[in-house]
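=== RUN LOG ===
request id: a7f3
mode: sequence -> structure
chains: 1
length: 375
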Amino acid sequence: MQPPYDPPRDTLAAGLVEGLIRDAAAVEVGFGCELTDLTFAVTEDISADVLGGSVAHNSYDTLHGSAQLSVTRDLPFGYAVLCPYLTLYDGTTRARFNLGAYFTDTPSRPLAEVPVTYNVTCYDLLTALDNNIGDAFSLPAGTNYLSAVEDILIGNGYHQYLIDRASTAVLPVARAWPFDDSSTWLLVVNDLLASIGYQGIWTDWAGRLRVQPYSSPRVRSAEWTYDVEPATSLLSTERDEWHDYFKAPNSWVFVRSNQIDGAQPVDGNGIYRYDNTRTGVTSQEARHRTIVRKVMVDAADQPSLEAAAQITIDADTAVPVKITMKTAPNPLHWHFDILHLQDAARGPETNVLGTAWTLPLDGSDMSHEWTVLPI
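=== RESULT ===
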C-alpha cells in the first residue's frame, strides 16, 4: 500500500490520513489530473477538463495499472502522461492521493459532439517496456544483474525509478533472448530479476518504477485492517468467497537451468525441493495425496534459485481461497497489499493478499479481489 505519509501527505500529523479514510463521519471526495512528461515535470493541471473515471490495478497482470478517464479537451494522445489523483476532505483536513502515471491511447473523436468528450484508456508506464526488442539480445557472463536492468530502463526513456541494490550478483554464464514475438524488454527485465530472487518490476503511485527483492506475503505484516465494527468498517455487504484448488501443487522440484560447466544438478546445488506437508487446504495432509510440480529456473546461484522458488510456491499456494469485496474508497491501496480481515461472516480473522482493485473517482465503493493467505 501507499505509505500514509508519503508526499504530498507527509506534512500531516500522524493518524489524520487513516482517520480520513476510516473514521470520519462525512468526507468530501474530489479528484484531479495532471499532464506530465516521463520525468513527471507537470506541464499542466487538467482537472477542469476531466469529468471522471476510475483507476484499476491488477498485481498479476503483465501491465498492472490502468485507468479510464473522460476528458473534454485535445491532448497529445499517444505519448501524453496523465497522473490522476483523488482528494479526501472532512471539513478540517484535506489529503491528496496520487494514483499513478499512465500513457494514453489515441481515442476516437465523436464528430457530432460539441464540446467533444474523449473516453481515454490509460496504460501502465510499463507499456514502454512491453515492446518487442526487434533483435536477438544477449548479456555476457559477469554482467551485474541490476546494472543490466538499469541500462534497459534508461535505454527505454525512463528517468524515475527506485532500485534496491541488495543484490550484487552477476551472470554466472552468458544469457540470450531470441528474436521472436515473445521477446520484450519487460520479459528480459523480469527474467533478470527472477534470477536473483527479485519480484517483477512494477510502477508505484508516483509513477516511479520499482525494483526490489521478493518478500513472501506470509512473512509480511498487515498494512491495513478491515473489520465489521460499526464505527470503523469500510466493508460493503457485497462480498463473496470461492475455493479453487483442485490442481494446486503441494510438492515442488526446482532445477537450475544454467548450471555452470554442465555440472549435474543435485539437491542443494542446482536443485531445490519443497513439500507443503500441512499448511492450508492444499497441503499433502489435507489433500491426502502429493501433487508435484517441476520448474526450471535460470538463477544466479543456489540462494537465488531458492528465492525464486519461493515466489512460485507462494503464488501456487495462494490460489485456493479468493474473496471479492466492495469497500468504501481507500486510495492507499496499491501493489500486492497485505491486509488483515476481521469478518465473522467468512470465519476466523486472517491475512489476505490484495491482488486486484478498481477505484472510481466519484467516491463510490471500490471493488477488490483478495486471496486468503495460508495459515
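=== NOTES ===
The CA atoms of residues 34 and 45 lie 4 Å apart.
The longest strand covers residues 350-360.
=== END ===
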